[in-house]
Design goal:
The complex is a heterodimer.
Chain A: H1 7-24, E1 42-47, E2 57-62, E3 67-69, H2 72-77, E4 85-91, E5 94-99, E6 104-109, E7 115-119, E8 125-132, E9 135-140, E10 149-154, E11 159-165, E12 170-176, E13 179-184, E14 193-198, E15 203-209, E16 214-219, E17 225-229, E18 232-233, E19 240-242, E20 245-250, E21 255-261, E22 270-274, E23 280-285, E24 288-293, E25 302-305, E26 311-314, E27 321-325, E28 332-338, E29 345-353, E30 355-360
Antiparallel strand pairs in A: 1-2, 1-30, 2-3, 4-5, 5-6, 6-7, 8-9, 9-10, 10-11, 12-13, 13-14, 14-15, 16-17, 17-20, 18-19, 20-21, 22-23, 23-24, 24-25, 26-27, 27-28, 28-29
Chain B: H1 2-21, H2 24-28, H3 34-38, H4 45-49, E1 55-58, H5 61-66, H6 72-79, E2 83-86, E3 93-96, E4 105-109, E5 112-113, E6 134-139, H7 143-146, E7 153-158, E8 166-176, E9 180-190, E10 194-205, E11 210-212, E12 221-223, E13 229-241, E14 246-260, E15 273-287, E16 292-309, E17 314-332, E18 337-352, E19 360-373, E20 379-390, E21 397-407, E22 411-422, H8 426-430, E23 442-457, E24 460-481, E25 487-510, E26 513-531, E27 549-559, E28 562-571, E29 574-575, E30 583-584, E31 587-600, E32 603-612, E33 631-642
Parallel strand pairs in B: 4-7
Antiparallel strand pairs in B: 1-6, 2-3, 4-5, 6-7, 8-9, 8-33, 9-10, 10-13, 11-12, 13-14, 14-15, 15-16, 16-17, 17-18, 18-19, 19-20, 20-21, 21-22, 22-23, 23-24, 24-25, 25-26, 26-27, 27-28, 28-31, 29-30, 31-32, 32-33
Classes of the chains: A mainly beta, B mainly beta.
């Protein structure tokens, strides 16, 4: 019988096992986060998180302290937000974080970020907007992704109290007076309308035909509402069958006052935002960030920065332009800040996976 | 009689050649040696004769028997160094060898590549273990032998008939946790010159296991929803010995799979369902002679994949088919040289709304290997080349050089240099929105050296091997968003994989009790070394979901008809972001297999028991996808065999 303890044999064993133990000995910790500091003035960054599985996160940049905290929600609550964090809004000093694939809205104190019970029973929620002190609206794509609705939320109980049927794929909202303008992007299907809801009666009072796939919506200093329509792909995706458009709505008559067409048959405009002075629009188009004067009746074609972003935002207090760069969509994204007047880079910071938007307070 | 002797002569030569590089068991003849004299049908000649220099491991036949009511995903995860990434118990299971992904692993069934032309991979959860007899894993690239996709390694599944066994009727029933029920039936008529075998299986499970939802407020314990599955299939095989040197075979495999697709803990419950239906027809003619052998084989594969997700109003139906014709010849030019020459033609087509048209692809490959064996049969050298001509204009050329040397009776040194490639899939080329018809094949070189030691004395045997490899793949295909936000595949990066693998197997016999133990450990770095985009945060970082460390330890006792086997499986850190900022923790699971057989006249009755994840470890294979805790399976197998009357 062969002796296992003969030196030559033992060596083979040791060689194999020692490699295992030596290399297996190291342990790791997931990226450390600095203790979160929430100040009165800062920017929340919404990070969608990786596709398919995983979780989105919220980052916070304190303007006073000039510090960035990533993964705020998990750090404070010891559980993740969930799959595809679509948006966040602050209502009554509470952060409402809409988690699309998880069909829920997480609610956390906007100062401590400690969570309370989430709002459930939603169908692919997208955005939330307070319409008065006790009521908020939540846009939804519905159980098939091919419908559109606005859920009415009682802010005192955080319970859904009603559903308003809108165009397909209800997306972003804008409150003007007592009326809520809802862009209906189509969801999994197609649509091209803005539904107007009376916030007192919760009834749709007008349906305005804009352009294909309306998405971003902002109000300018003259009280006009601007809607950016992305346009629509051909069924074989070889190009756009309907190009994008920038539409101005007269809110007195609820009619389209001006529609500025985009000419590209391949690039969809996206990311509509407005500056603090409310006289200049910004959006992505043809791989660039463009700016547009609200008085123009045609495309200004002014390049602000020669690259595009997954999300755009402008701090109304400082007029600094924020660009969210999702990178390769499977690693930490970046936020790059620009001087609105010169387009020069102020600085950049590394945030969560797939940053898509900003909440300024 | 003379012919039979000749056949055995060829086969004996073959076995001697295996002894240089093949597994310990064959060398020592510990396995049932009877098959040597019965062997008439040769399975994967190229693997056994022309793969010198590669690391090839065979899964023990007892492990295959123990896993007869499992899928290849479970078998390979527990018994090989293949990393099997499963989303859930019956969910998509993709293979990864040496840091490469599933589309860079060739899965061959009796020599035919099963990988779908649409996505370039084979889901291991769809392959039942009881439909194959032998499973071998070839580590490292072997593009010159198997063509596109054999970069990280290749998995060889073979059906191995036995003539003159008589009539066999068998039924295996198993019941497991989460309402898992499987029923296997085997009917086999094995005569002197003819075998007809039919196997059925039916498998269903709820897979509604409980897990702690770490993705939710309060971390509640929940049951997995929408995870139920149902599979059924039939495999019918016929083998006919035309003469002592010639045989033909015909195989027919039909299988339906319906799986609900559970979502991750961070998403709400889904309603998605995936149905995979496959029809596989093959026929092969073999003529095995002392000097020249011929093999001709033809296959027709047809697959339907239907994915339904009501949450996004999606019903996606895809049909794909492959027609494969291959002929090869093995010529013993002289005592020292053996030549293999062959042609393969593969015609793929697909119909799906996801493409703007219905693509077809014709690929013709010419392959040639020459084996040199020295006079004393302790040195081998193989050179192989393969030229593939693809209808879309790409003509990848590949080659490999491999060598083995036996030193001092017990040691063997081997090494190889291989050029590898993988052609883009139909999805990469033609997907409506983003498909890129201008993609180049992934390609690269790999090198490896292995040192093995085998010894056997009286009742003790040891088989040790250490392998060091280095592999580079350039023009690696990835889907990335372009400047206007449309996702499209590009040849974007260079990947460098390198590592060490150690394998030890020890066999020990004490009286009538046999002990076996195995330890397998690998340390592999697979990093992105050059990235052709401006996004550089993943440069020099480990690829997603690719652990650097993986280890298996098993220990078994076999006392007459009682078998006890313990399996310990460790998987190290895996990154979930390409910049390596987030990762999943390492985990280890422990499994136990028990089986006991009785033989009463012509009946053999086996009862078996499996326990998985005995220590009830909560782990994640894919981020936030729930995995089962402790689970059990109990089974009963009854086999009736009536030997043929003695002539």
């Amino acid at each position: 019988m062969m002796n296992l303890f003969k030196p030559s044999h033992r060596l083979l064993f040791i060689a194999s096992i020692s490699v295992a133990t030596l290399l297996g000995a190291c342990t790791k910790k997931n990226a450390d986060t600095i203790a979160p500091v929430l100040t009165d003035h800062g920017i929340f960054i919404v990070n969608e998180g990786p596709y398919g599985s995983g979780t989105g996160t919220i980052s916070y940049f304190s303007k006073g302290l000039n510090t960035l905290t990533n993964d705020l929600f998990q750090t404070k609550n010891n559980y993740p937000l969930g799959n595809v964090v679509q948006s966040m809004n602050i209502i009554n000093n509470k952060a409402y974080i809409v988690v699309n694939n998880a069909n829920k809205i997480e609610v956390a104190d906007a100062n401590s970020f400690v969570a309370q019970a989430p709002i459930t029973g939603l169908n692919q929620p997208r955005y939330i907007l307070a319409v008065n002190a006790i009521k908020a609206y939540i846009t939804e794509w519905g159980p098939t992704g091919n419908e559109g609705a606005v859920k009415v939320l009682n802010l005192l109980t955080n319970k859904v109290s009603g559903t308003i049927s809108t165009g397909k794929g209800a997306e972003k909202m804008l409150l003007k007076g007592n009326f809520v303008y809802v862009t209906c992007k189509g969801g999994s299907g197609k649509d091209s309308v803005v539904s107007v809801i009376n916030a007192s009666s919760d009834a749709v009072v007008a349906t305005i035909n804009v352009g294909a796939s309306p998405d971003g919506i902002v109000e300018d200093l003259n009280g006009n509402v601007w809607v950016l329509c992305a346009g629509q792909y051909k069924s074989d995706y070889s190009g756009l069958e309907k190009s994008g458009s920038l539409v101005k709505i007269n809110t007195t008559t609820n009619t389209v006052e001006l529609s500025i067409p985009f000419t590209s048959t391949s690039s969809q405009p996206s990311g509509l935002t407005i500056n603090g002075a409310k006289n200049k629009l910004y959006f992505n188009y043809e791989g660039k960030v463009m700016s547009q004067n609200i008085t123009s009746t045609a495309l200004d074609n002014t390049t602000f920065v020669a690259r595009s972003f997954y999300g755009l935002g402008i701090d109304p207090a400082t007029e600094i332009v924020y660009g969210a760069d999702a990178g390769n969509y499977s690693s930490a994204g970046k936020v790059i800040r620009y001087n609105a007047a010169t387009g020069a880079v102020v600085d950049s910071m590394t945030v969560g996976i797939i940053p898509n938007g900003f909440v300024f307070r | 009689m003379f012919m039979l002797y000749k056949i055995n002569g060829v086969l004996l030569v073959l076995l001697v050649s295996l002894s240089v590089g093949d597994s310990y068991a064959q060398m020592l003849g510990i396995k049932d040696t009877a098959y040597v004299t019965k062997e008439v049908v040769v399975t994967s000649e190229r693997l056994s004769t022309f793969s010198a220099g590669s690391k090839i491991t065979e899964i023990d036949s007892s492990a295959i028997a123990q896993n007869s009511t499992n899928t290849l995903a479970e078998l390979l995860a527990g018994q090989s160094q293949v990393l099997v990434k499963s989303y859930s118990l019956s969910g998509l299971a993709s293979s990864s060898i040496r840091g490469m992904n599933a589309s860079q692993t060739a899965v061959l069934w009796n020599g035919f590549n099963l990988s779908s032309a649409m996505n370039g991979m084979q889901d291991l959860a769809l392959l039942p273990v009881n439909f194959v007899n032998r499973v071998k894993v070839q580590y490292g690239g072997a593009g010159a032998l198997w063509g596109s996709g054999a970069i990280g390694g290749s998995i060889h599944l073979n059906n191995k008939p036995e003539f003159n066994k008589g009539i066999t009727l068998g039924r295996t029933l198993s019941w497991g946790s989460f309402r898992d029920i499987q029923d296997n039936v085997t009917l086999e008529f094995s005569k002197n010159k003819f075998i007809s075998s039919t196997k059925f299986f039916q498998h269903q499970a709820q897979n509604n296991y409980a897990y702690t939802n770490v993705g939710k407020y309060g971390k509640p314990v929940e049951q997995l929803q929408n995870a139920q599955m149902e599979q059924r299939g039939i495999l019918h095989e016929n083998y006919l010995k035309l003469s002592e040197s010639q045989n033909v075979s015909v195989r027919f495999w039909l299988q339906n799979n319906s799986r609900h697709i559970p979502t991750s803990m961070t998403s709400s419950t889904g309603k998605a369902i995936q149905e995979d239906n496959a029809l596989r027809l093959t026929t092969e003619w073999q003529c095995i002679q002392k000097k020249v052998s011929y093999f001709s084989r033809v296959a027709y594969f047809n697959e339907k994949l239907q994915y339904t997700d009501p949450a996004i109003s999606l019903i996606s139906v895809s049909y794909s088919s492959a027609f494969i014709a291959e002929t090869e010849t093995k010529i013993s030019i002289s005592k020292l040289h053996t030549l293999n020459l062959g042609i393969n033609n593969t015609y793929n087509s697909a119909i799906t709304k996801n493409y703007t048209f219905s693509p077809t692809q014709n690929r013709t490959s010419f392959f040639c290997s020459n084996l040199f064996t020295n006079n004393s049969a302790n040195f081998k050298f193989i050179g192989s080349v393969r030229e593939e001509i693809i209808s879309n204009g790409l003509n990848p050329f590949t080659f490999s050089l491999g060598s083995e040397l036996r030193i001092l009776k017990n040691f063997r040194l081997r090494g190889n240099l291989v050029k590898n490639y993988r052609i883009p899939t139909f999805n990469d080329l033609y997907w409506a929105q983003g498909g890129n018809p201008n993609l180049l094949p992934e390609n690269g070189y790999s090198e490896e050296i292995g040192l093995g030691y085998m010894a056997c004395k009286n009742n003790f045997a040891i088989d040790y091997e250490t392998a060091v490899f280095n592999s580079n793949v350039q023009d690696w295909i990835m889907w990335i968003p372009n400047t206007v936000g449309i996702w499209s595949p590009e040849n974007v990066q260079k990947v460098w994989s390198r590592g060490v693998e150690n394998d030890v197997k020890i066999y020990y016999t004490l009286g009538k009790v046999k002990f076996n133990t195995g330890f397998h450990y690998q340390y592999i770095l697979t990093t992105a070394e050059e990235i052709m985009t401006k996004e550089q945060s993943s440069l020099h970082k480990q690829l997603l979901y690719t652990p650097t460390e993986k280890a298996i330890f098993n220990f078994g006792i076999n006392n007459r008809n009682l078998k006890v086997q313990l399996n310990y499986n460790y998987i190290g850190y895996r990154y979930t972001t390409t910049d390596n900022t987030q990762f999943l923790d390492p985990f280890a699971t422990l499994g136990l297999d028990l089986s006991k057989s009785f033989t009463v006249k012509n009946f053999q009755v086996t009862t078996f028991f499996q326990a998985n994840n005995l220590t009830n470890v909560a782990y994640q294979m894919i981020a936030y996808f729930a995995t089962p805790g402790r689970s059990f399976q109990f089974g009963l197998s009854i086999n009736f065999n009536k030997p043929n009357p003695k002539p």
